[in-house]
Amino acid sequence: MSPVSPIRIYAMILRYLYLLRGSWPRILELAYWPTVQMILWGLITQFFTGHSEWVAQAAGILIAAVLLWDVLFRAQLGVTLPFYEEMYSRNLGHLFVSPLRPWELVVALLGISLVRTLIGVLAAALLAIPLYHYSIFEMGLPLLAFFTQLLVMGWALGLMISALVLRLGMGAESLAWVGVFALAPLSGIYYPVETLPDWLEPVALALPSAHVFEGMRAVLIDGVFDTGHFLAALLLNGVYIAFGVAVFLWSFQSARRRGALLQMGE
Q1: I need a surface site. Which of 24, 28, 30, 213 has the fewest CB within 10 A?
Q2: 28 or 230: which carries more pLDDT confidence?
Q3: The domain containing residue 38 runs over which residues?
């Protein structure tokens, strides 16, 4: 057994540094998680400091927020992870030797995303009933509206991220986690959008998720379904999903022309 060599260790560290330097998404990810956590929990703390009575106004409001946020997160991962699996196995090019069309792949990804989201979120929602004596299903029909809007937004994000991976390669795969959590502070999951700085409020209201969580609080606190927020989320989601599908199909055709479908993988 050869002795430990500092030169070999240095060479391997240098190798990983070169890999890191060659992928800007990996560099971004290093500072990303601490920054997002700091911003999110800073805003939560700031809101609760001046509104300590807010939680008492609606039992289980934080649990409802967590479960609905998970719909968006699972819907997005439900698109990106199956797509990544095809790329890891270098199977993407093989699939399109068959008569499969790109838009059929898109529909399949959205379908499996729905299944994965239902399995994941339904289990958590049912467990919340015996553990915390709270049922998110008490919201009734508004819950279906919130679920649908977050599901569609997750689909749009998943398609956009998959398109970026097609364009940039597997070095950008961390965007599946980075992308959706970047929107968490702006979505007003645990606090109203008005908690944000004034200049950020229009940015937040350009997200369907912000309207969904504002609508959720209106139902839980005031017992009112805000149709204004619902229609805004519906309109924005129409734009988002159309853009997501278009970008994915464009990136796919571009990768096919470059011959990249058979070259991507581990």
Answers
A1: 30
A2: 230
A3: 32-258
Helices (H), the chain: 6-21, 24-50, 61-88, 92-95, 102-132, 141-168, 175-182, 184-187, 201-204, 208-217, 227-258
Is 70 a residue whose pLDDT tops 80? Answer: yes
* 217 in any annotated domain: yes
Residues in Cβ contact with 224 at an 8 Å cutoff, skipping those fewer than 6 apart: 218
Work out the angle at residue 214's Cα, subtended by the Cα atoms of residues 139 and 245, and round it to the nearest 5 degrees.
95
Predicted local confidence at residue 250, as pLDDT: 92
The yes-or-no verdict on residue 19 having pLDDT over 80 is: no
User: Does 17 fall in a domain?
Assistant: no
Q: Residue 222 is inside which H or E element, if any? A: none
Residue 2 lies in a domain: no
pLDDT at 59 over 60: no
